[in-house]
Amino acid sequence: MESIERVSNGDALNKDTLYMLGGVALVVFGAGLILSNPIVRRYMGQLGIADLAGNVMPDIERYMKIRSM
Q1: pTM of the entire structure?
Q2: Same-domain status, 31 and 50
């Protein structure tokens, strides 16, 4: 009886992992659809998202140095 419960618990874990990965895939797909729109790309260019990413990198590097100490 214990082995049956163990298999059922493992199946639940696999199902949860599958749902999580499916959700991540849907988010990535949705973001791709939104960013493929030319109007959205024009607005993103006006906001300067690339500049924002460049400005954040030194902070991330500093965080990783502090974390490794």
Answers
A1: 0.50
A2: no
